[in-house]
Specification:
The complex is a heterodimer of chains A (about 475) and B (about 475).
Chain A: E1 3-4, H1 13-30, E2 32-34, H2 37-45, E3 49-51, E4 56-58, H3 61-70, E5 75-77, E6 86-88, E7 95-98, E8 104-106, E9 113-115, H4 118-130, H5 151-162, E10 167-169, H6 174-188, H7 191-196, E11 200-203, E12 211-212, H8 214-226, E13 230-234, E14 237-238, H9 246-267, E15 273-277, E16 280-281, H10 296-309, E17 314-315, E18 317-318, H11 332-340, E19 348-352, E20 354-355, E21 360-361, H12 363-376, E22 383-384, H13 387-390, H14 392-398, H15 408-417, H16 423-428, H17 436-450, H18 458-475
Parallel strand pairs in A: 2-12, 7-19, 8-21, 10-11, 11-13, 13-15, 14-16, 15-17, 18-19
Antiparallel strand pairs in A: 1-22, 2-4, 3-4, 5-6, 8-9, 20-21
Chain B: H1 6-22, E1 25-27, H2 30-38, E2 42-44, E3 49-51, H3 54-63, E4 68-70, E5 79-81, E6 88-91, E7 97-99, E8 106-108, H4 111-123, E9 129-131, H5 144-155, E10 159-163, H6 167-181, H7 184-189, E11 193-196, E12 204-205, H8 207-218, E13 223-227, E14 230-231, H9 239-260, E15 266-270, E16 273-274, H10 287-303, E17 307-308, H11 325-333, E18 341-345, E19 347-348, E20 353-354, H12 356-369, H13 380-383, H14 385-391, H15 401-410, H16 416-420, H17 429-443, H18 451-465
Helix pairs in contact in B: 1-9, 3-9, 4-5, 5-6, 6-8, 8-9, 9-10, 10-11
The chains are: A alpha/beta (about 475), B alpha/beta (about 475).
Chain lengths: ~475, ~475
């Protein structure tokens, strides 16, 4: 039995090959900047060419490819409740998490913006726990009342207490990482248990283009050694932190992932690692990340293809409206951009409940994004294409021109084969724009007034009219038929 | 978009071939049956069934034109298919009413309205070919398609799409088009219209339509063999069954075209969806529809045929976007099926009606959507490792000339005015979401951590803060 699943494919075989080759060339010729002596040492000992002054490590092809080979192809992002484990690669749908580390939220009672505290994070965690559409939890808001260097550990701690789902956090340095590992071990029941069932993982962003911060990369090494999965999220912004060309952005994000995988596997061969990206063109006016840029689904699907090529689980999509205020404030096309990234073949992604490119969070938005996902994800489910589901025997029984409505095959299969959306949830998503039709009407009137079509020669029109009239006569008295599609 | 893997694709093909050979298709036309019999089909004249051997099907696939042009009156809007890039979008066909542009009320349509739709379509960059959105209700029924075509030719320079209801109908359509194109040979060289020749699922062909199809292909007019297989109604409920039925019908129609005129211009097509079990309607917005589109698009490519396997247009009960994001997404994503053309802009209520405002809205949404489907170059030059080297680790590309030189070529910038009127101003969403949040926070319990674990954890945190 095979399962059909819809997936956007962006690169053909030769383009995929080119991206791979150019990424390797980038790593061996240009290398990566690693702001950490200890990690540079580690890489140097494992075969990288190190320029100590520039802190650049050039990674030879065989080093990168042996790291790829060592990376586990299947693993779990575990949860306090085993039933919530994120099993990678995903089989049915991608797993979607919340958005992360916002500094404000819209208050549930007043609707107003305010800074967030630990108590708020516990609410977000509990809400996420209560929504089946949410696959795992990113600490959604920042505990702004605690010292800045300690906030990740507070957030991990609050999250672990308030959700039975997997938690994916962040770390600032090696010490932070060790503390988080200690907390995780407490909840998991010891270091050995945590290694076996990592109930949390971390996002470790390379800083595009091609560099690694000291604290984050040293933390990554600690996590890898403890068996905590790392997600190497490349945020290559076309035109800012990567070339403006889509092909250049893809190579940059791919190269950063390969470099990060090399670091993980050098530190701890076989450590779990998720290939990840939130790469998209930058908004040329504001210099901020533009998740709604038209090119982002293409970049996501190319990167998912690369991850699959390397046999790695990936996190390259986005989900969530992420508007300035709660609700769906973007145009259909902008939201479609975000939604299309989910067709990339990604195994997981983040984004529910965020506002304003993750600067803010909203509990209402988390519900809205979760319900949107519930209605969208059936497009991504796996379907059975087999002799049995093709059902030639049933076709024979129904015959040409017959109806399937009354055949038992229909009643016994329709609930299994088709998705029936919750009508109420659909109702919310409706566009109730008060401007659309009014504006369109104005535009139609203008065009009909101004736009002229070159006239057909008068003689031809006369001939055509005559032709129609004679046809009209010919059929007069004939049987009238109804016309319809 | 890829839905089927190679093995699944093979299975669908094999099942279609088996159906055509063993079960055959019902063809309600003695002349077409005879033509098929002469060419090698096994014909049961009494039951009007033609069984097509595999060789005949493969032959038809081989003979079919793999590339051709849907011509335009002025030569400026010629559509070469397959597109290899962005699909071509057309308007919706033959509603019987429209919403009046002045009053907004529903009313029956006339020739004058067809002229308005045609002229609007002519001006819109989001519309590549024209189907008559509405019907001239004041003329005899049998002449509906003829008048629509004549109005379209006079008011729109773009390629026109029609329905053909009989051989006689076809002959008049060809004559009218020859007049405009400058003769039959000119028309054959560059057909300025195409016709939709629907197969009636499951597996049957109406006499008028199939005889019309034969006339059209003989004159070099491209035909679209649209299968409307409705899962659970005119096709098996299972997705695989619906896909196979649509594929089988397309192959049968292709055999008819290629038998009548080897090398005929034939477009593989499906607007198949699960049937709405309550109303019996077609459900363009079902999540499964997109999957059927993707699968049939793949099959068309397998045979090397131009495809019409997507649809475009909101097609709501009233003008605007009176449907949910996920529903409209499902329709929109059918454009990723590998389709070369798709119609549907400007329709209301599943093509029962039309609206000029809607034609504009659908065209504008398409203007912003179609760039998802453009081609990108993935080359060494575009990858630009030399630029990466020059910029260096951790630095910005913003000021490098490569960015200034390429950003307009490489990135798509939406028309802000067009984007603005797509936004959702739902008034129900937030209050209802807030209610749902409160309910979950009130009722949902998370298992508490063990007290001792909690104590030790707090200690670790206190410690780090020090």
């Amino acid at each position: 039995m095979t399962l059909a699943k819809s997936c956007l494919k962006f690169l053909d075989r030769s383009e995929e090959e080119l991206i791979h080759k150019q990424s390797l060339k980038c790593l061996s010729d240009i290398g990566v900047l690693v702001h950490s002596d200890s990690v540079l040492n580690m890489l140097g000992e494992a075969g990288a060419l190190i320029d100590r002054k520039k802190m650049v490590a050039r990674l030879p092809e065989d080093m990168v490819m042996s790291a790829v080979r060592r990376t586990p192809k299947e693993f779990r992002l575990c949860a306090r409740d085993r039933n919530n484990d994120v099993v990678l690669p995903s089989e049915l749908y991608p797993y979607v998490s919340t958005n992360g580390l916002s500094v404000y939220m819209t208050d549930l009672e007043t609707g107003k913006k305010r800074p967030t505290v630990r108590k708020d994070l516990s609410m977000f965690a509990r809400l996420a726990d209560g929504l089946e559409q949410i696959g795992f939890f990113w600490p959604q808001v920042t505990a702004t009342e605690v010292p800045t260097d300690a906030h990740f550990i507070h957030e991990l701690w609050v999250s672990l207490q308030n959700t039975m789902k997997h938690v994916q956090g962040d770390a600032v340095n090696a010490r932070d990482a060790r503390m988080q590992i200690a907390l995780g071990a407490l909840v998991a029941g010891g270091m050995g248990e945590l290694r076996k069932r990592p109930i949390f993982s971390v996002t470790n962003c390379p800083i595009a283009p091609l560099s690694f911060e000291k604290g984050a990369v040293e933390a990554q090494v600690e996590f890898a050694r403890a068996g905590i999965p790392t997600s190497s999220m490349s945020m290559s912004l076309s035109g800012m932190s990567s070339p403006v060309t889509v092909a250049g952005t893809i190579v940059n994000a791919n190269a950063e992932n390969l470099a990060s995988i090399t670091i993980t596997q050098t530190a701890a061969p076989g450590a779990p690692h998720v290939y990840a990206s939130e790469s998209t063109p930058v908004d040329m006016n504001t210099g901020t990340i533009n998740y709604a840029a038209n090119e982002s689904p293409m970049i996501a699907s190319a990167l998912a293809q690369m991850a699959k090529r390397y046999g790695m689980p990936c996190m390259v999509g986005q989900w969530g409206c992420d508007g300035d205020v709660p609700g769906m404030t973007a145009s259909f096309n902008e939201l479609a951009t975000v939604a299309l990234t989910m067709l990339s073949g990604t195994d997981c992604c983040s984004g529910m409940g965020g506002l304003e490119s993750a600067k803010g969070g909203s509990l209402e938005q988390m519900v809205i994004d979760a319900y949107l996902w519930e209605n969208f994800r059936p497009i991504l489910r796996s379907m059975r294409i087999t002799e049995e589901t093709i059902a030639l025997d049933v076709m024979r029984q129904v015959g040409q021109g017959g109806t399937y409505l009354t055949h038992p095959h229909t009643s016994s299969n329709f609930k299994k084969e088709l998705f029936f959306p919750d009508k109420k949830k659909l109702g919310w998503e409706m566009t109730r724009s008060t401007r659309m039709v009014k504006d369109a009407r104005k535009e139609v009137k203008r065009i009909l007034k101004e736009h002229s079509v070159p006239e057909i020669d008068k003689g031809i029109i006369k001939e055509g009219d005559a032709l129609i009239r004679s046809y009209e006569k010919e059929i007069a008295g004939g049987k009238q038929r109804s016309v319809g599609i | 978009m890829k839905f089927l893997d190679k093995q699944e694709e093979d299975l669908v093909h094999a099942a279609s071939v088996e159906t055509l050979k063993d079960m055959g298709v019902l063809v309600r036309s003695p002349s077409v049956l005879k033509m098929l019999g002469d060419a090698g089909a096994t014909v049961d004249e009494k039951k009007m069934i033609a069984k097509m051997p595999e060789g005949m099907v493969n032959d038809a696939v081989k003979k079919a034109a793999k590339e051709f042009v849907l011509g335009s009156r002025d030569g400026k809007h010629d559509l070469k298919i397959p597109t290899g890039s962005i699909p071509f979008v057309g308007s919706n066909g033959i509603g019987t009413y429209m919403t009046d542009l002045k009053s907004g009320k529903k009313r029956e349509t006339t020739r004058k309205d067809i002229a308005d739709f045609a002229r609007l379509a002519d001006s819109l960059t989001g519309i590549d070919f024209f189907w008559s959105n509405v019907t001239a209700m004041e003329v005899p029924t049998a002449l509906h398609m003829i008048y629509a075509q004549w109005e379209a030719f006079q008011n729109c320079t773009k390629n026109y799409g029609t329905l053909t209801l009989s051989a006689r109908d076809a002959k008049v359509q060809i004559k009218l088009a020859s007049l405009v194109a400058g003769g039959r040979e000119q028309l054959r060289k560059k057909p300025i219209f195409h016709s939709l020749c629907c197969v009636i699922a499951p597996l049957s062909f109406e006499r008028g339509a199939v005889e019309g199809q034969v006339e059209l292909v003989k004159a070099g007019i491209p035909v679209i063999s649209m299968s409307m297989s409705l899962g659970g109604m005119s096709a098996p409920i299972t997705l695989a069954g619906t896909i196979t039925n649509a594929n089988t019908e397309n192959l049968a129609s292709l055999v008819i075209s290629q038998t009548a005129a080897p090398g005929a211009r034939h477009i593989y097509s499906s607007e198949s969806t699960p049937g709405n079990m309550t109303t019996g309607n077609i459900v363009y917005e079902a999540p499964e529809t997109m999957l059927i589109s993707a699968a049939t698009g793949q099959m068309a490519k397998r045979y090397g045929l131009p495809a019409y396997t997507g649809s475009w247009g909101v097609n709501g009960a009233i003008p605007g976007v009176p449907m949910s994001f996920t529903e409209l997404s499902a329709i929109a994503m059918s454009m990723f099926s590998g389709t070369d053309i798709a119609a549907g802009a400007g329709g209301l209520d599943q093509a029962k009606g039309g609206s000029l405002e809607q034609l504009l809205i659908d065209a504008y949404i398409w203007d912003n959507y179609k760039s998802f489907l453009r081609r990108f170059e993935i080359t060494r030059e575009k990858i630009a490792l030399d630029v990466v080297k020059e910029v260096g680790h951790g630095n910005s590309f913003l000021t490098h000339p490569h960015t200034a030189k390429n950003f307009k070529k490489e990135l798509f910038f939406r028309d802000k005015a067009k984007a603005a009127f797509e936004s959702t101003n739902s008034t129900a969403m937030i209050p209802e979401a807030r209610k749902a949040v409160r309910k979950i926070l009130d009722e949902h319990e998370v298992q508490k951590l063990d007290k001792e674990v909690l104590r030790q954890g707090e200690a670790i945190i206190k410690n780090i803060q020090k």
